[in-house]
Amino acid sequence: LYSLALKTSYSGFVVDPPSTALPNMSHSSALSALKDLEPYYQTDVTQPFGLGTKLSRTYVTRCLLGDRGTTYKYLGLRMFSTSWDSAVGGGIKKLNDAMEERL
Fold it and tell me: Strand runs (DSSP E) across 1-103, as ranges?
């Protein structure tokens, strides 16, 4: 089923073997960087019945990382990023840099 989904819906998607995925970073350090983000995830809040109606939390949580001052707006909700140079953002920045090196 996985192979069929890749062929039919994800043309060009590549899965790297673990030994070559992030050669400059161990699995444990990548996992640790991701776990450090857990307290920063925020629940989305929307107005499913339109402006002026009751706010509703969604089942989606997200965390935005980026340059200081970066914002993201979706469905009228503006989020501010956690900076790459913060204590929590540093590990993710290393992970991001390691992935960019592969391009």
Answer: 42-46, 56-62, 65-66, 71-74, 77-80, 82-83
Q: Tell me if the pTM is above 0.90.
A: no
Tell me how far CA of residue 97 lies from CA of 65, 93, 102, in angstroms.
13, 6, 9
Which residues touch 56 (CB under 8 Å, ≥6 apart)? 45, 46, 47, 48
Report d(CA 77, CA 85) in Å as an integer: 24
Mean predicted confidence (pLDDT) in 31-57: 83
76 phi and psi angles, rounded to 5 deg = 80, 0
Closest CA to 61 of 81, 44, 39, 77: 44
